[in-house]
Write a structure and sequence with these properties.
Length: 285
């Protein structure tokens, strides 16, 4: 029973971090109908930014707002310079364009930052917290709680602010939203920037316990795509539910099967959802 409780809490904390990575991806898809294949590389850049701040004495938690703002601005620039032009072409243009951006960012990181694994020097929160029979590392607990707070903040922003309502209007009907006077380009840019800011925050949190290297974002991005497909493309609530499910399946799979097989239950669940409910658990047709 103690082992089950330990795995349960560990899986939920892991899932919360996946949720913060995935909500940015699902927000961009919901508003713009674009799948950003470079999402993982944005995460990698955020982790390097957090590392750079740590090297000058600003730890990952203190640097989180700075990294999130930097990625927000970077996302807006990428949208205005690159994505906006792709949207004027056929739907396949955004697929190939964002995949090309993935290759570009990975190659630039390998050329300028080397392929070595790098971690924050003297990382904080290296202790362990005991909650009855459950032992949790301070870093994983802060990562999970931080991710939950930020995901909830994004949900509140989309649900209860004027800009959030404009984003939901675009997601519902772009033509009607345009006729109502919504500035589509502005809202698209904000959505893309906020999606990048989400991985900026996630990158800072991950540097509490993960190393960074040029392809560090790829595993998280792959998991984020599975999370979004499970929860439903365009649904923030679905991304949270899907992420928690993935976190639990990964942790339990790694323990009861084998560490190298931990993703097998995740992909089985993904295939089952795709076959039985293609729109995802909380998505709409």
């Amino acid at each position: 029973m103690d082992t089950f409780a330990q795995l349960l809490v560990g899986g939920l904390l892991t899932g919360l971090v996946f949720a913060l990575v995935a909500v940015g991806l699902t927000l961009v898809y919901g508003v713009m109908d674009v799948v950003n294949f470079a999402h993982g590389e944005f995460l990698m850049l955020a982790m390097y930014a957090a590392l750079g701040l740590a090297l000058i004495g600003i730890g990952p938690l203190l640097g989180l707002p700075l990294v999130a703002i930097a990625l927000f601005l970077f996302g807006i620039v990428v949208y205005r310079v690159f994505i906006r032009r792709l949207l004027a072409g056929p739907p396949e243009a955004t697929v190939f364009g964002t995949f090309g951006l993935l290759v570009l960012l990975q190659g630039a990181a390998q050329a300028t930052l080397t392929s070595d694994f790098q971690s924050v020097p003297n990382p904080p929160l290296q202790g362990t917290i005991h909650l009855g029979p459950i032992a949790l590392s301070q870093a994983s607990l802060v990562e999970g709680i931080g991710a939950l707070v930020l995901t909830a903040a994004l949900f509140a922003f989309v649900e209860y602010t004027e800009t959030g309502r404009a984003m939901r209007a675009l997601a519902e009907d772009r033509v009607a939203a345009t006729l109502m006077g919504i500035d589509v380009q502005r809202v698209n840019g904000l959505a893309f920037g906020i999606g990048a800011a989400c991985v900026g925050a996630a990158g800072s949190l991950l540097m509490l316990s993960y190393p960074v290297y040029p392809t560090a974002g790829a595993p998280f991005a792959l998991t984020a795509f599975v999370v979004v497909a499970l929860g439903g493309f365009g649904s923030i609530q679905g991304a949270l539910v899907g992420a928690l499910l993935v976190g639990l399946l990964e942790v339990f799979g790694g323990f009861y099967l084998a560490p190298e097989l931990k993703m097998v239950p995740v992909y089985v669940a993904y295939l089952a959802v795709v076959l039985l409910r293609p729109q995802g658990l909380l998505g709409r047709r």
